[in-house]
C-alpha cells in the first residue's frame, strides 16, 4: 500500500516540472509543406493503434516523402498521457481520439480546426460528425464509429418460446423473464449495475425514452421525466433479479453470454469479433437487434475521430494522412483490418461491408438514428456522475426519482 | 556557512566548535586541527556529499518538490484547464478544505478508511504475532517452509493477489462457494455485498501484510534473553503467563514499530479496492486514497485532491503520535 502516494507525488512533481517547461515552449512554429521530406508522428489508441501502423506504411508508399510514425497507446492510459503531453507541450502531430474525449481537448485549446472544404460534414454519420463540433467549428474528422445495440441468444430464446427479436421495452423484459423462467438461465440479461462505464449501457435507455443528456439551453436534463422513466426501466431488471447487482471491475460479459448465464446484453459492434474469437461455439446461436424501443429505438454514437494538434508543424502532411484514412476505399479497407465500422456512409456500400457478418446490420440501422454524446469539457466527470446515479438505484436502492434529482444536482456545475 | 571568512581561517574559536559540532560527519577530535572551521561544502566534506547526492537528487525531485507543490496546490483551484495554462491558477484560500467537510463521498471514504484501519491493524498485528510465536518455538524443520509461506504474499504483486482472491471469492465458481456447496450451503457474493466487501478486503490485507509483522516479531522474539524466560518458568509460569508477562512486555519496542508502520500503510490503502472493487458496491470500499486518485487523475481536480492528501497526512501524523505515546517503552 505504501508506494502509491509516492507514485502520486512523483506524478505531481512531473506535472509541476512539465508546467514550468511548457511555459517556455509554446507556439506553432513554422509549417512544413506537404511536399517536403518529413516525419509525421501519430498516436493511435488500443488495438486500432496497432493496426494503424500498417496503414502508415502503406501511406508512405504513396507519399515517399512523408514517414508516418505511429505510437500505440493503451486506452486505459491515453487520457492521462494526452493531458501530460498538453502540459509538457510534447503532443504528436496527430492522434486518433475517442469521441467522448474531444470536448476536453477542445476546451484545452489543443486541437486544430478541420478544413470543412476538404472534409464534408454530409459524408459522415451526422452524430459522429457533431461529436467534434463546438460553436460551429469542427475539431475532428470521424474515422470509425460504433454504437450500442442488443445482443441476445437465439438458441436459448427458442427454448424459452420466443422466436423474434424484442422490439419494445416490454418485449425485452418478457424475454429476460422467459430466459430465466423457461430456459433456466442464471440471469435474464446484463445491465451494468455500477462502476466506470455504466453510462454506456444506461444512455441508450435514456435516449430511447426520449430523454437527453443536455436540454436545449445546454443544462443537464437528467431529472427529466424521461430520465426517471429510463432509470425505472433499467432498475426493474435489478429489482426482479433479472440482472446482477454487482460485477467485478473488469467483468467480461462475453464469457457469461457464452455460458448462457447472461443471455442478453447491450454493447458495441466489436463484440461480434470477440465472440468469434473467444466463444466460437456461439456461431449461429446468437443475433443482434436494434435497441428495443421505449418511445423510440435510439442509441448513441461512439468511436474515434482523427485530430490534428494546434502546435503541429506538419499540418499539411497531417491533412494528407487524414484524407487518406477517411477515403471511402480506405474506410472499407480499415474495416477488413480492424473490424471497425466506417464513419463515412458511402463506405458501407463497399463489398467488404456488404459481406460483413449479418450481426452488423443492426448497428448500421442503429447508426442512422443514433444521437451524439455532446462534446463536454468535463465529460469524464459528467459520466462518472451518471455511473454513480445508476449505482444509487441498483445498489443503494434509492428511488429512480431521487437518483435522477441527485444526478441533476451533481452535474449542474459541470457544463457551460 | 557564511561565517567562514578568510581573515579568520585557522583561528580556533568557540563559534566554530559549536558550528562544526552541528555539521554532518565532523568528529570532535579533529576540531583543533588547522582544517577547523571548514565549510560544510568544503573539499573534506566532498565525499560525504558525493555519496548522498543520489539520494538527495531523488529525494528533492520526487519527494520534497511534490510535497511543497501539493501543499501550495491545496490552496488553489488547479484544474484541467490549468494544465495548459498554469498561470491562470487562482488562490482560493481554505475553500478546498471547507468543501471537503461537506463532501459526502469524502466523508464516506474517511469512514471506510477508519473501518479498514481499526479492524485491519489489530488483526494483522495479532496474526503476525501469533505466527511469530508459533514459529519461534515448535514446528521444527518446517520452520523455513512456514516463514516463506507467510512472507510470500508480501512480495507478490497485488494484481496477482487480486486475481487469486477473486477466484477464491467468486460467488459463481469460486473456491469458497464450491466448498460451501459441497456441504450443502450457499456462499454470499463477498465483493458484491455492501456488508461483506470491506471485511473481505480486510481479511485479504491482513493475510497479505502479516508476513512483514511476523518477520519483525521473530527478530524481536529472538532478542528476548533465554534467562528471563527460564527464570519465569522456574517461578512456575505457564505458557500463557510467560507470553502475557514476559514476551509481550519485552516485545513492546517491536510492537510499536510494527503497529505504526502497519497503521500508516493501512491508512493509505489504495490498491486493494482499486483492483478488486473500484470502491463499490455503493462506495462501501471507497477509501481516501482511491477517492483522491479519482479526483486528481481522473478529473484533474489537482487542488482539491491535494487538500485531501493533506487531510490524510494530518490524520496519519496524529494517529502516529498517539501510538508513540500509548506504546512507549515503559521498561526504561
Automatic annotation (TrEMBL), chain A:
PROSITE patterns: PROKAR_LIPOPROTEIN. Gene3D superfamilies: Periplasmic binding protein-like II (3.40.190.10). Belongs to the bacterial solute-binding protein 1 family. Pfam families: SBP_bac_1. Residues 1-18 form the signal peptide. The keyword Nucleus does not apply. Keywords: Signal, Transport. It comes from the Bacteria. GO terms for molecular function: maltose binding. One of its GO terms (biological process) is maltodextrin transmembrane transport. GO terms for cellular component: ATP-binding cassette (ABC) transporter complex, substrate-binding subunit-containing. CDD domains: PBP2_MalE. Residues 394-416 are annotated as: Disordered. This is ABC transporter substrate-binding protein.
From TrEMBL, chain B:
Coiled coil: none annotated. Residues 19-28 have a biased composition (Low complexity). Keywords: Cell membrane, Membrane, Transmembrane, Transmembrane helix, Transport. It comes from the Bacteria. GO terms for cellular component: plasma membrane. It is a multi-pass membrane protein. It comes from Streptomyces abyssalis. The keyword Ligase does not apply. Residues 1-37 are annotated as: Disordered. Belongs to the binding-protein-dependent transport system permease family. The chain crosses the membrane at residues 48-73, 115-136, 148-168, 196-219, 250-270, 299-322. PANTHER family: ABC TRANSPORTER PERMEASE PROTEIN, INNER MEMBRANE ABC TRANSPORTER PERMEASE PROTEIN YCJO. GO terms for biological process: transmembrane transport. It is found in: Cell membrane. This is Sugar ABC transporter permease. Residues 110-323 form the ABC transmembrane type-1 domain.
